[in-house]
Every structure is written in structure tokens, then in C-alpha cells.
Amino acid sequence: MADTPTTPKELHLCMGLNTCKANGYSGTNDCAGMGDCATINHPCHTLNECKGQGGCGLFGTTEEFCFPSQNECRYQGSCGSPILSARFVTQGPNKGRSVWQLARKRFEELRAGTNQPIGAPPGGPFGPSNTYVNEVRKTTGQDYSSCGQSGSRHCSYLADPAARALAADARVLVMEIESAEEMKETLSTCPPRVY
After folding, report:
1. The pTM is what?
2. Tens digits of residue pLDDT in 121-147
3. Considering Cα of 6, then 11, then 17, then 23, what sign does the dihedral take?
4. Where are the alpha helices (DSSP H) in 97-191?
């Protein structure tokens, strides 16, 4: 099955969120933050098998939405994996903003004090698209949008599938750009993390 890495790797939920060299999906990344895809999959809220595997976006609390991929325990994750670039927070002060970009920012914050290099994510600064994940995993037409992609921007009343896809891609691009521009505000609306 093309959906599973061939050798055991660090368990992480998306592109650019791995902590070590060679621990991306394909095992070819040069350092932390450069992994090409998730090494785990689960479809939705609380279905994660381990700490740090909740994606956030659709179900959960504002605190969970503020700390994607940082859940403390099995079954406490808020949404599925992988986190596609189109996934956005559906409620609270960060409604409409990118989950993957926030997860990446939180990852960078955790790594800041380690003095270890962090590379750029291979799929770009906005996170992986469904097309990208299919390419990495050598699948065709597989839908990796867990939890209905948290209010999928691909939903539309446009009858023509090509026009629907173009309109959705345009909506996703706007959300990605706005989320990047608003990251400082996004972080400021999140409560401090209590451990």
C-alpha cells in the first residue's frame, strides 16, 4: 500500500514538522523541518494513537486550535493527519486561518532553544496540498483531507468540476496569504500553554 512508509520513522503528522534528519515520509530529508509528509494518518478528532498527533481545525477547544500537533496524550488530538494547506480553523478568534502555518510556527518555537538547524518545508511555506501529498506518496486521486478538511474550500455550487477546482484553489491561496500575514495576531489571540 502506497500510503504507509516502508521503514519505521519518527511519528509526526505533517510535512515540515519532523524533528530529525531522514524522518520525513520518504526518509530523504536533510534535517528537522524538511520532512516531505506525515508518517502517521488518522481521520479526525481524538482518533490519534499517540502524543503530538492532533491536527486541529474543526472540532475542539480554542486552546487545542492554538497548539496543533502538541496534544499531550493519545486520543486528545484535535483533528486528523496530514494537515493540508487548505485546512483552516473553523471557530474562535483565529477562525478562517491556516492550521498548518500555525503548526509550523509552533514547531519552530519549540525548536528555537535547541541550537539545531531547521530546514524549509519542501512543499513551500503554506503547507502541503492534496496534490503534493499524492505525489509524495505515489498515489493518484487519493483524498487526504481529514475531517472534511475543516470546512473544505472545495465545496461549491459550481456544476463544472474544473471551474469548482479553480475557484477553490483561489480561495485557498487567499487564505494562505492572509494567514501568513496575520500570524503575529494569531499567536496573540492564543492563551498561554499550560503544561
Report:
1. 0.78
2. 888 899 888 888 888 888 898 877 765
3. negative
4. 99-111, 130-137, 161-181, 183-188
User: CB under 8 Å to 49, separation ≥6 — which residues?
Assistant: 40, 42, 74
- Compute how many other C-beta atoms are within 10 angstroms of the C-beta atom of residue 58: 23
Instruction: Find the angle CA(125)-CA(22)-CA(52) to the nearest 5 degrees.
Output: 65
Q: Which three cell numbers stand for residue 63?
A: 486552546
Residues 73-85, mean pLDDT to the nearest whole number: 66
- Residues facing 81 on adjacent strands: 42
Map out the domains of the chain as residue ranges. 1-189
Identity of the amino acid at 5: P
The span from the CA of 26 to the CA of 186, in Å, is 32
Half-sphere exposure of 136 (CA within 13 A, CB side): 26
Q: Are 12 and 52 in contact (CB under 8 A)?
A: yes
Distance CA 56, CA 3 (A): 21
